[in-house]
Every structure is written in structure tokens, then in C-alpha cells.
Design the sequence.
């Protein structure tokens, strides 16, 4: 078969990026995530489905902490830009809430209903709404923009946004070229412009400090994305803390994020100069 990316053909690319196939208990774990998320919604004050645009999925959930001037942890879920929802991963809000953050769980339109350009623009629209505080949410605090997997790419892309003071890409996909060459592109239909414009690895410029995390038990390609991104940022003189989580895979890394005393939250509050 034809070699497409770093010596990989289509079969090898699928194996390199199929996070679901790589984790034997993913179905049970996702069910657990959904159950824990439903329990969190039931237990804590939350404004659900606040609109930041006209499309059905242009909405977010707001979990307030006790201080209106607290920092804001914005979380963008993964799913290769074409699957999952904020409701699947709401349980992760427990971690930042326990460290004094307000939490925003962001939703966005999925491919093929939206192109990569449209998805990227939706995150910009979300940040604009939060900054404008048009719904009286009390969003005066600094914003940490976090995201997992596909959400990690969106987080890293907006590390230069005027509203963001810290970025936290988790298991992030920072190079879209292998995505465009794989089965994942059937719905995304990435253009060369989008690959160039929205691959954070190709835009290592001056931006806010970052906390970059990845599980050591993730697929090697996912680990490579984070390691090479951190190395490039450091070479450019950017402030970035690398947090490899021993033994975590692409899904269990979120269980650590959901802990107020987890490795990632400890690194984040330290990186933001908070206690």
C-alpha cells in the first residue's frame, strides 16, 4: 500500500490514531463518564445550554464557584471534531471547581455539519461571549482555555487570544496533516489552507503560558504530538510545562483532570501562579 505519512499507509494510520480501538474497556469507561457527568449536573448549580451563537450546538454550560472574580476554566471536549458532546465529559469539571475555578463546558458544531474553519471560528465566538459577559455570568476572572484531543488542538490554536491567559492542551492533536491523510478526513474534508492555518505545530509564536499533558500509555502518535509541540515551544522561548501522566491512556487522563488534587490540576494552578 501507498505510504502516506512518516512511512505509514492507511492501515497503519488507522492503528496510529484509533484511540477507541486502542483501549479495551472504552465502552464501559465512556458509560461511567456519562453517569458521573449526569450526577454532577444533578448535584451542582449550573446554567445549562447558554447560547453563544445561532446554531443548535453553539452553547455552553456554566458551573460557578463561590467567587465571581475567580479564574475561568473553559473545557473543549474531544471526539476528532466529529463526535461526542459536552454532556459526555462534564464530570471533569469537578477538578477545576475543587481548585476555585468557574467552569465552562463548551460545545461546538461537529463535522460534517461544520468545517474545521467553522469549528475554529465557533471557539472564537464563545470566547467573545464570555469576555462580553452579556448573560451576567460574572466572568471577570482570567481564562484558562483547556481541551482534550481535538479540543486540545483548539486550545493550543487560541493561546494567542486576547481573552486567554493560560492554555492547557491535553492529549492534543497539534498537526492536522496525518488527520487529513487518514479515514478521519471523510467527514472533516480538510483543505490545505486549514491544515496550515490550524495546526498549532506550525504556529509556534509568542503566546500565553501553557500546561501540556499526555498519558504515557496513549498511542505513540498522540505522545509524539505533545512531545514535539513542547520541544518546539521551548526552543522558541515559550513558557510551557510538560506533564506526562504515567500509565494513563487517552481516556483515563480525564479521570486525573477530574480530581482537584490530580497531577494536571496541581500543574495548572502552579503554572497560573495560584494556590
Sequence:
Amino acid at each position: 500500500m501507498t505510504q502516506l505519512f512518516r512511512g505509514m499507509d492507511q492501515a497503519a494510520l488507522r492503528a496510529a490514531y484509533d484511540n477507541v480501538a486502542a483501549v479495551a474497556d472504552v465502552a464501559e469507561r465512556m458509560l461511567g463518564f456519562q453517569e458521573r457527568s449526569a450526577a454532577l449536573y444533578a448535584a451542582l448549580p449550573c446554567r445549562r445550554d447558554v447560547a453563544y451563537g445561532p446554531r443548535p450546538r453553539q452553547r455552553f454550560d456554566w458551573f460557578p464557584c463561590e467567587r465571581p472574580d475567580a479564574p475561568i476554566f473553559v473545557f473543549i471536549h474531544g471526539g476528532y471534531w466529529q463526535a461526542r458532546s459536552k454532556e459526555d465529559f462534564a464530570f471533569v469539571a469537578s477538578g477545576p471547581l475543587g481548585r476555585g475555578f468557574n467552569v465552562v463546558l463548551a460545545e461546538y458544531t461537529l463535522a460534517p455539519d461544520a468545517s474545521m474553519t467553522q469549528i475554529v471560528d465557533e471557539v472564537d465566538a464563545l470566547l467573545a461571549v464570555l469576555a462580553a459577559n452579556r448573560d451576567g455570568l460574572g466572568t471577570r476572572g482570567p481564562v484558562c482555555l483547556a481541551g482534550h484531543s481535538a479540543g486540545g488542538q483548539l486550545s493550543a490554536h487560541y493561546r494567542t487570544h486576547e481573552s486567554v491567559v493560560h492554555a492547557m492542551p491535553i492529549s492534543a492533536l497539534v498537526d492536522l496533516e496525518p488527520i487529513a491523510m487518514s479515514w478521519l478526513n471523510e467527514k472533516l474534508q480538510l483543505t490545505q489552507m486549514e491544515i496550515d492555518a490550524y495546526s498549532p505545530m506550525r504556529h509556534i509564536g509568542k503566546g500565553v503560558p501553557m500546561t501540556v499533558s499526555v498519558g504515557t500509555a496513549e498511542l505513540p502518535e498522540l505522545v509524539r504530538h505533545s512531545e514535539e509541540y513542547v520541544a518546539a515551544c521551548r526552543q522558541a522561548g515559550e513558557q510551557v510545562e510538560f506533564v506526562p501522566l504515567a500509565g494513563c491512556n487517552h481516556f483515563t487522563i480525564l479521570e486525573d483532570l477530574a480530581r482537584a488534587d490530580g497531577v494536571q490540576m496541581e500543574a495548572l494552578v502552579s503554572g497560573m501562579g495560584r494556590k
The radius of gyration is 17 Å. The chain has one domain: 10-271. The first helix runs from residue 10 to 17. The longest strand covers residues 164-170.
